[in-house]
Here is the input.
Amino acid sequence: MNRKDQPKISPSPPRKILLIRLRRIGDIVMTTPAVAALKRALPHSSLTYIVEEPFRRLVEGNPDIDKIIPIPAHQGLLSFLLLMRRIRRERYDLVIDFHGGPRASRIAWLSRAGLKVGYELKYKGFIYDRRVPRHRAGAPLHSVENHLNLVRAAGIEVREPWPRLVFRAAGREGSERIERLWAESALGGSRLVVLHIGAGNPFRDWGPRNLGGLAERLAGLPGVRVVLVGSAQDVPRAEEIRKMSPRPVLSLAGDLNLVELRELIGRAALFVGPDSGPMHIAGTTSTPIVALFGPTLPANFSPWLARATLVEKPFDCRPCKQRKCLTEDFRCLQSITIDEVLQACSPYL
Here is the structure.
């Protein structure tokens, strides 16, 4: 913490709190325990959450959030100035920057909030009245714990039990759509495995051959059905994987929004995928998870408080910044075998 600035802080509990986390799926979902801790400690305070428009579904309907300010993913100067005028008019007592990116830190800096809390960032430390390190010396720290530490830095008590990840359930329309898909695909009575086939970058991509081999092996188990999920960009990959398997494999890649995806995962027997946004969405359900970790460490990004089996390889180059593979073969993920993943899935099926 920045002790020098502490006398500026009002001793009374903050009544209006602004929270900032602009992207992406997993990162936003992992802020929800900190949001829940805030609301638990300050039930009468108003919490406003700033999020980029493509990801507003992740926080809509969250019972701990009173107001959402969605902003464009790419924002012009005029739009930004209008946003800051709106924020300044609210006169927030506290702003917590869960992000720390260029735009998020500018919003915090210009907010005129009574207390600004954020991470210890190079060239940005002057922005925040209280700061916490993003990394703990000598030991990894989970991203959720990082966010909870920001709440503590604001002088707010975080009590056990630790809050879980939060993501709203599908409404009637979303539930009915998944019901229709369930009936049309004759999934009743089967144990469904949701296999996420997308990847944020090549470092986290297990590859279509591995995914196809796993889908075929899983689909061959008695009573098991496999459904592939991913974005619209993953549709060609889904078709490639389906062609590899002589057994029926259903693809819903590009067909589901985030709320419907959660509804589907919540009805499944198992979710399988890499360290990704959908993995953290799965962590908001009671469905068990088999997660593949390559360049990232489970100690930082594992499904929070979820029933999960984590598959990883102990290479010295992990973790990495995912900019250049030192061995040029992405061995941290590619050395994970289909047999190893199938073995991790077996206890749940």
Remarks:
- Confidence is low (pLDDT under 50) at residues 1-9.
- The longest strand covers residues 46-52.
